[in-house]
Design a protein that fits this description.
D-Maltodextrin-Binding Protein, domain 2; Alpha-Beta Plaits; six-stranded mixed sheet
Length: 284
Amino acid sequence: MIKIAIQGEPGSFSHEAATNLAAEMRADPGESARIVPFSLSAEAFAALVRGEVDAAVIPIENSLAGSVSEHFDLMLTSDVTIVRETLLRIRHNLIAISGATIGQIDRVFSHPVALAQCRRFLQEHPQMESFAFYDTAGSVKQLVELRDRHAAAIASEEAARYYGAQILVSGIEDNPENYTRFFYLSRSAEVPANPNANKMSLAFTVENRAGTLVAALSELAKEGLNLTKIESRPVHGRPWEYVFYVDCQLKSPEDGARAIQALRTHCSMVKELGRYEEAILKPA
């Protein structure tokens, strides 16, 4: 049985993504996956590095809320590699204990991002006061434990099913084009080369002088690589210096090696975070 670490409670969107990825990557139909939840992302990464789990599945960015900055930092400092990515359609639901009605609800709990993505629904129900919680699925777990008919949670359909709660209203998110991109991570030493990889993620730093970032990005352009994302994060302990994270599409396996070699001439640090197959966005 393969063990996969996630941050968050069982029934969370990370749990759903991990289950989907495990099924996609399963070589043996009889093989099963055990999802191992952790309270903190750093704990999930540490468990993977120590070999306590076989993989970790983490959200890296949401199409509406943006990037999960902490996970960029953890990938840079941990000996892990991106093996695969997936895109999960995020559908939020108003969830309550069995027997409760929408007219009884005066408090709603969920992760701050989920609350923000359901602002229109909450405005249409002013009697419902919203409260931030550490996790979407965790808010459903609390709901069921307390058996409070006047409280509800915003979370996934899987969370309602996992904890035995009921969905009062489904699809309450403001924008249906709501997707989260997840990475499947393994320990770097255990990742074989993927001949079908058509995407690469990199981290690099440049000297703090005029033109160095432009020169580095020009090297990728010279290699004919299409840059699909660029993100900057501060270097810890070195004010106003930054690490740049980029995703680029690969036309061939050799493109990745050439890009790294080209960047090294302009960058003080280059780290390959992974080469993998690009996830395809499916219609909502």
